[in-house]
Structure formats: C-alpha cells, structure tokens
Amino acid sequence: MAATARLVSVLQESQKAPRRNSSVAVLAIGTANPANCILQEDYADWYFRVTKSDHLTALKNKMKRICDKSGVKKRYFHYTEETLAGRPELFLDPTLPSLSARLAISAAAIPELAAAAAAKAIAEWGRPAGDITHLVVSTNSSAQAPGADVRLAELLGLRPTVQRTLLYLHGCFGGCSALRLAMDIAGSNRGARVLVAVAEATTVLSFRPPVDAHPDALVAAALFGDGAGAVIIGDDDSTGTNVERPIFYMVSASQGTLPGTEDTLSMRLQEDGYDIGISVKAPAIVRDNIEGCVANMLAPLGLAGAGWNGLFWAVHPGGRAILDSCQDAFALGPGKLAASRHVLSEYGNMYGATIIFVMDEIRRRRQQDGERKELDGRLGVMLGLGPGISVETMVLRSASGMEKK
Ligand SMILES: CCCCCCCCCCCCCCCCCC(=O)SCCNC(=O)CCNC(=O)[C@H](O)C(C)(C)COP(=O)(O)OP(=O)(O)OC[C@H]1O[C@@H](n2cnc3c(N)ncnc32)[C@H](O)[C@@H]1OP(=O)(O)O
C-alpha cells in the first residue's frame, strides 16, 4: 500500500474505531520560565566571568564554539548573579559541599515555577482548579518528601483529595513519562481530569565552574535552561461541559531503551550537585538506532513504515545534533522539526518540561497556519529521549477544528 494511503487508513482507524485511550485528550497547555534571560551569544563571556574562569582561554573558546553550534538563541535561569552572590559553594568552589543548599533553593523554586505554568493551563481550560482529580508532577530538580506536588496542590487550591504522583529523576524524558501516566489515569478513571506539571530548575543543581577534565559539562552548560510546562488531560467522552476544547488526542504511548547505551547520557546526584555525562557519541547513536526503535514501538499501530513525513513530529530537542540525527534517521523533510528547533532556540533544553513547550508550539503553529496539507499532521509522534538511552513515544491526533480556535 502506498505510504499516503496507508496513513489515511491509520488515521481513519484511529477516528472510527477508538482504542482504549483514543478519546483521552490534551485539554489545555501552559508554560512558564524564570525571569532571568541570558542571550546565548553572551553566555560564554557571562559564564566564565561569573565563575572567575576567564584565564581558561582555551576552554572559553571551546565554550564559544559549542554555543555557536548549539542552535540556542536564549535561555532562562532561576539563578541570577544577585542570588549567587556570597554563595561560593554554588558557582566558584566545587570542593565545598553544596547539595543541601542547592536542594533548598530548588525546593522553593520548583512549586512556584510549576504553579505559574499550571495557572495558565487552568485558565485556558476554563474550569475551576477544584475540578482537577489527579496531579502528576515530574522534576529532576528536587529530592524530598513531602515534595513539590504537595506545595503545588496548595498553591493552586486543588481539592484535598486530589490523587498525587511525583516522578523524580526521569531525565529529559520526564515530561513524556508524566504524559503517558496521565493518559493511562484519564483512560481508566471516567471523568478524571489530570493536571501534569513538569518543572525544571536543574541548573540550580548543576551550575559549577568549568574544568578541563569535564568537557561534556560545557555542553550541558551550553544547552540547558529552566522552565515549566503544564497540561490538563481528560477523557473527551466524559465531559459534561462545553467549555473544554480538545487540542490533541492521545492515541497510544510506549517506552523503549536503546540497548548498550547505559553510559551514553547520565545524571548522578552527588555532594556538589549533578554529575553529568553526555557522550560525544550520543548524536551518532541516536542517528543509527532511533528509526528502528520507534518503528518497533509503533508497529502494533500499523504506523511503522506508513511514511514518516506524513506525520507531525514533536521531538524533544536534547541538542541541535540530536534533532539533526532524528531528521536524518526518519528522512524527515525540511521544516518537520521546526517546532522543536524553535523551542531549542528560544529556551534551550529544559529537560522534561521541553516537550510541553514543543506541543504548545505545534498547537500555536496550527492555529496560525491551519493544516497546509490534509495529512501533514492529523497524526503525529511525540518523541522523548533521555538517560537509558530511554525512548518515549506518544502517538497524537490533532483535534479537528483545533486550528480554527
Ligand atoms: C544563571 C545560571 C546558569 C546555569 C547554567 C548551568 C547549566 C548546567 C546544566 C546542566 C544540566 C544537566 C544535563 C544533564 C544531562 C542529562 C543527559 C541528557 O539527556 S543530555 C541531552 C542530550 N544532548 C546531547 O547529547 C547533546 C548533543 N550534542 C549537540 O547538540 C552538539 O554536539 C553540540 C551543540 C554540543 C555541538 O555541535 P556540533 O555540531 O557537534 O559541533 P562540533 O562538532 O563543531 O563540536 C563543537 C565542540 O563541542 C565538542 N563536543 C560536542 N559534544 C561533546 C560532548 N558530548 N562532550 C564533550 N565535548 C563535546 C566537540 O568535541 C567540539 O570541540 P572542539 O573540537 O571545538 O574543541
């Protein structure tokens, strides 16, 4: 069957013969960032000046080369020079213990950042916060109980019986994991309204001076930023109101792992914050393996080989080279990853929160441009990558009429 015909049939299937979760939909999206914004063109100078490392000229030049190639224009950070002042353990001297101080800062920051994004999602949703039945929070920036979920529920005025789940340390695919979990909750609890909040201020746990011995930490310092994304998810069939407007239906989700890649991407919480590992081989490993992995994951839906270019793509922008690898591996046409590249450019990699920004950007582009081709995007693949190397996919179907909103 020709690729386009095959895709038409998959799309029709997903509309007329709903699978278990096919009426579960994203009903609202909100995002937020801290106020401190640094332009990427200024970052190497800023970073080396603030960490009193200007004498490391070779390393600074390398940082400039990485920033130039990063595809990032600007990023937002919880830290400012003012908040760092007088705290040498946070940015000057990695031999000083700093974990408790870092965790105390992020414990206060994460619920506030999550609440800023969630408040926007709730406002767009149009129903009272008290109608939220389940809360799924994901972060890489905290390690305590009671956690950010409890404080977030308080800040938003959620009902005291809201059912909370907190995901820690899922790396860059934490947003996809949270969305997968929320899809399952909404699909198995009629009338459930699940608020997903993914908040990341991971730079709080990772900021430290540059050292020759750890060039991949330069890559992390050049790519990552802070932000939060929130999504409300519910079963479209069970809505008793007409205020809810589905944006994307969540058709199916799956998770896989690229074998033999345990050491390719890593994060380990230690006395001075996160120890980060980003192998220089990561982009090539993704290029060589991702298509086969995703094809296997989507085969039960009949999507594999249906023509990757007929789908819309929401790929986690782990780094510019990771996006290039995905573009090559799926032989995607120019522009297919435009939303991911835009988010990388405007915000950097915000870990798990990033995928929600990408989803929001795709929605924004559709509202502006409409569907240029019938199939350029009724069905799409959300793709998250992170330590493991773990691969999360979710098949999305854009709600008809969403573009006219
Ligand atoms: C206000 C407070 C501010 C706080 C900021 C603090 C920020 C800290 C944030 C930490 C966050 C924690 C991250 C945790 C990571 C978790 C794991 C992930 O999922 S990660 C997600 C997955 N993300 C990824 O895997 C990143 C994917 N990589 C990329 O996107 C690109 O490779 C690139 C943009 C980094 C460079 O562009 P590309 O076209 O490749 O350009 P070139 O070939 O020309 O190379 C330029 C230079 O870069 C070098 N170099 C490159 N890679 C590495 C490396 N790994 N290792 C070492 N070096 C590396 C390369 O050798 C060359 O050096 P030189 O010869 O000039 O001396």
UniProtKB/TrEMBL annotation:
Organism, as annotated: Digitaria exilis
SUPFAM superfamilies (alphabetical): Thiolase-like
Protein name stated in the entry: Uncharacterized protein
Chalcone/stilbene synthase N-terminal domain: residues covered: 13-236
Family membership noted in the UniProt record: Belongs to the thiolase-like superfamily. Chalcone/stilbene synthases family.
Family annotation (InterPro entries): Chalcone/stilbene_synt_C (IPR012328), Chalcone/stilbene_synt_N (IPR001099), Polyketide_synthase_type-III (IPR011141), Thiolase-like (IPR016039)
Chalcone/stilbene synthase C-terminal domain sequence ranges: 250-398
Keywords: Acyltransferase, Transferase
Active-site feature positions: C172 (acyl-thioester intermediate)
Domain of life: Eukaryota
GO molecular function annotation: acyltransferase activity, transferring groups other than amino-acyl groups
GO biological process, one term: polyketide biosynthetic process
